[in-house]
Amino acid sequence: MALTLHSPLDMHLHLRDGEMLHNIAKESAHTFAGALVMPNLVPPVTDKAALLAYKARILEAIGDEHFRPNMTLFFKPDYDRAFLETLREEITAIKLYPAGITTNSEGGVSGFDVEELRPTLQAMSDLGIPLCIHGETNGFVMDREAEFVPIYEKLAKAFPKLKIIMEHITTKESVAALERFENLYATITLHHLIITLDDVAGGMLQPHLFCKPIAKRPEDREALLDVALRAHPKVMFGSDSAPHPKHAKEACGCAAGVFTAPIALQVLTALFERHNALEKLQDFVSGNAQKIYGITPIPKRVTLSKEPFTVPAEYNGVVPMYAGETLEYSIKEVTDG
Ligand code: DOR
Ligand code: ZN
Hints:
This protein has 12 helices and 13 strands. The longest helix is centred in the first third of the chain and has 15 residues, at 48-62. Strands 2-3-4-5-6-7-8-9 form an 8-stranded parallel beta sheet. It has a 3-stranded antiparallel beta sheet with strand order 1-10-13, covered by helices on one side. Helix 3 (81-87) links the parallel strand 4 and strand 5 (93-96). It is an alpha/beta fold. The chain has a single domain (11-296), classed as Alpha-Beta Barrel (TIM Barrel).
C-alpha cells in the first residue's frame, strides 16, 4: 500500500533561528514543498531587512532541499500602506498574536479595538494580504479560544475583503464560526486531531504534548476531525510544529509546543486511512491552502508506504511527538516534479 502526495504544504510552522533552525529545518524541508513560517523570533520579525535576512538564513539551513519558506510579518497595528506595499511580494501573510499569549508574543496586540487596528488591517485588506491570528483571550485556559470567536467575527465583519485565518483551531466553536463568515478560514494541526486534554494531563503529565492552545475535549476533536477528514475547503493543514530543546520541555515551567514536523505526513496518512478518507488528504495538505492563499507550490512528490517507522527518541535534542513509538507509515521516496 503506497500513497503519493503532491507538494504537501505546512501552513503554520515554527522554524526558529540560529542553532535550532539549523538542527530542525530539514525535517520540514525534506517532506514538505513549502510552509508558512511564523515570525515569533526574539525580536519578532517586523521590518523588511529582518524578514529578508531571516528568509536567507532559512534557505541556507535547508541546503539543497526544494522547499519554499512563505514568510510572515509580525503584526503591529500601525504599519502603513506604503511600508506594506514594499513588502507585498515578500510576505504571504501577517501573523497577529495577542500580547503574551504564547512563546515570544510579548510584542503582540493588547486590545482588539477595530479603530486602533484599522491602519494595518485596512492596508492589508486593500493589498490582499491575509491575516493569520492566534485567537485566544487571556481568560480561563479551556475557554480562551471560544471567547475569542466574537473577536474573529468582529474583525471579519469590519474587513469583509480581508482573509482571516483562525490559526490552529481546537474547538467546535471555531469550526462553527467558519460557516458564518465568508472571509474566515482555519488551519488545523496534527496533534489537535489526535489528542485531547486527557492525553496531556489525564495521567502522568506529558510535557511533549503541552501546547497553546491547549488540547480540548473529545467533542472538540470530533468537530476538527469532521472538517479535516472531508477537506472542508476553508480548512488546511498547519502543523504548528514548535520545537523546544528537551531541557525546556522537561522542566518546571515547561515551554508550549509539540514537535511534529518529522512525523506529520506519516501520521496524517494513517489517520485519514483509518477514517476511510485517504482521497481527501491531498486537498487537506495542499490543495485547499493553494486556493485559500492563491499560491503555487514547488513541485514535489512524496510517496508514503505502509511500512513501520520507529520514531527517533530525539532530533538534535528535540523530542518529537511519538518519540520511540512505531508508526504504520513511512516516507518511501521524495522526488522533485
Ligand atoms: O504551543 C505553541 N508553541 N503555541 C504557539 O502558539 C507558539 C508555539 C511556539 O512558538 O513555541
Ligand atoms: Zn504557532
